[in-house]
Amino acid sequence: MIAFLIRRVLYAIPVLAGVAFITLFLFNVAGGDPVAIKLGKNPSPAEVAALRAEMGLDDSLVEQYFSFVGQLLRFDFGASWADSTPVAEIFWRGLGPTLAVSVPAFSIGAGIAVVLALLVSFFRGSVLDRVTTALAIAGISISSLIYILVGQWLLADQWKLFPVWGFESGAGAATFVALPIIIWVALSVGTDVRYFRTVALEEINRDYVRTARAKGLPERTVLFKHVLANIAVPVITRLTIVVPFLITGSFLLEIFFGIPGLGSTLYTAITSSDLPVVKAFTMLGAVLYVAFNILADVLYALVDPRIRLS
Amino acid sequence: MATTPATADRPASTGATGPRSPAREAWYRFSKDRIAVFFLALFAAYFLTALVAWGIELTADKPFLYEQTLHELGIDVAETATPPDTGHWMRLLGTTSAGKSVLLRVFHGTKVAFLVGLLGAGLSVVVGTALGLVAGFFGGVIDDIVQYVYQTVASIPYLLLMLALAFIVRQGPVAEWYNASWLNDYLSLGLFNIVVVIGLTSWVTLCRLVRAEVKKVRELEYVQAARALGVRWPRILVRHVLPNVFHLVIINFSLRFVTAIKSEVILTFLGVGVDKEPSWGQMISDAKNELMRGIWWPLAASGLALFGLTLAVNIVGDALRDALDPRLKS
């Protein structure tokens, strides 16, 4: 296990180095001149030269790369171009509001999806199964923007059940995050149900299930004891892998409902070409992705004794 | 593949049948699914609509009808949004807040959706298949490089990569190059942007699948035999290996098609998508301001159009997966 962890972490280093390179290349080369972006139109030549020197843009790409990686290793992410706030501070400010939406939404959504998937595989072929499957495929065919637009218009604007826009920290947050959470669950549950149902049905066709049935075990025991234990592996893997995406939150939901989380911060940063913020968030997202992938493999082995980490 | 034996029609009994091509076998399984066949027909209807819209765009005089307000066209309607009514065919689905025909704009949006879907999914599938084929077939250093590239791309959060690329293509040297190139006459920068962004960010899944499958196929006897006979590797790859992973490509194409047309809506809403012509994404984005004023018909029309096409591709894609899955063969 320890050897496996060390190997995976070592293997992550070149991947993250690659991400750093792509980030630097995208924003400093392909995206046009960062100096022009920061200074706007018609800056004086002296200003341009000073800023180029300060940002190290006169160095070769290789030198720029190493200084970028050096900064990252020192956890020095620079400051926002918009208001000179350190990026780390921006991150901590946005984390709370984002998690207030994404953690409950993710837990509720995953819970509903797993229970529903097991139920429909238990009653497979029944009316319940067919209706759920049909609803799920219809649900995933609707644009996420429509869920948000219609949800906000109907539940907040027309029926006044929730506030349309805004956020407040502490306990008051509950009223503001309720509707985004409902919409998030509605737009994610279809995909998850379909996935978990496929996983469950694949498991149901295996030999051990036939054996259990042949022994005369009731279908309920077969499903919730034997099958559930075996689908735990793909369920856990899938749920672990999406965790990093909870940090970026739902971009669109945060924009629409005025939640000052990481998603809307990132959106503002991208639209205003606030490169230090965008670069730092990209690297952070990649680190989390890699970390949670390793975690998923470890959990995999813990849940399923047949799997040996090597 | 195209040769069909005379005995191709399957007898009602499950008795002995003549040899049939895998494609025909798959079609037989697919056609048993009535719902899927219905949605395939719906997809075909959308496709025809897109072709007609494209044909009109290529032949009609500018300014196009969809760009003009009904007031300008001399149809007696105020220059604001009006709900659907049967007074004139252009008013059947109402008018937008600028007084333009919703019907015509949704109609033209079909063409945009197909451009985005076919080109975006096409690029993604070509990149994924090509990299997966060479990685799985050659192994060794090439495999290591391809694996490294896709692991790196996969590590960047998808939405972030998509948005960052979208903004970069739009403002950087790429946009300058594109505006000067001949491609610009056929595909606006906004559309090109969406296609590139989708193509370059969504190929990883297919690449992984193809690579794993090719690694298995490579060891099969007939590939070994082809090698022993001295057939060169490009021919082995295209004639013997590719057909055996092609079911993965087809299924993935349908998934990416849906991703592409749904991403168009989001990218357009965020201001980095289609801008020079009406698209469903644009109409849905406009609804943000229109809905609060009670103007629901542009959203309803474009949303339903998008829903129908997405649903059709999703259902056909599901049925294709079942029909093409070799494990389900009796």
Which SSEs are present, and which pair or pack?
The complex is a heterodimer of chains A (310) and B (330).
Chain A: H1 2-30, H2 34-39, H3 45-55, H4 61-73, H5 87-122, H6 127-140, H7 144-158, H8 173-204, H9 207-214, H10 219-248, H11 251-257, H12 262-271, H13 275-303
Helix pairs in contact in A: 1-4, 1-13, 5-6, 5-8, 5-10, 6-8, 7-8, 7-11, 8-10, 9-10, 10-13, 11-12
Chain B: H1 22-31, H2 34-59, H3 102-138, H4 140-155, H5 158-171, H6 173-180, H7 189-201, H8 204-217, H9 221-228, H10 233-269, H11 280-291, H12 297-324
Overview of the molecule:
The complex is a heterodimer of chains A (310) and B (330). Chain A has 310 residues and is an all-alpha fold. In chain A, 77% of the residues lie in helices and 0% in strands. In chain A, helix 5 packs antiparallel against helix 6, helix 5 (87-122) crosses helix 8 (173-204) and helix 6 (127-140) crosses helix 8. The longest helix of chain A has 36 residues, at 87-122. Chain B has helices spanning 22-31, 34-59, 102-138, 140-155, 158-171, 173-180, 189-201, 204-217, 221-228, 233-269, 280-291, 297-324. Helices cover 68% and strands 0% of the residues of chain B. The radius of gyration of chain B is 24 Å and the shape is globular. Chain B is mainly α. Chain B is built from twelve helices and no strands. Classes of the chains: A mainly alpha (310), B mainly alpha (330). The A-B interface holds A 14-16, 18-19, 22-23, 26-27, 30-32, 37, 137-138, 140-146, 149-150, 153, 157, 244-245, 248, 251-252, 266-267, 270-271, 273, 278, 281-282, 285-286, 289-290 and B 148-149, 151-157, 159-161, 163-165, 167-168, 171-174, 258, 262, 265-266, 269-271, 284-285, 287-288, 291-292, 299, 303, 306-307, 310-311, 314-315, 318.
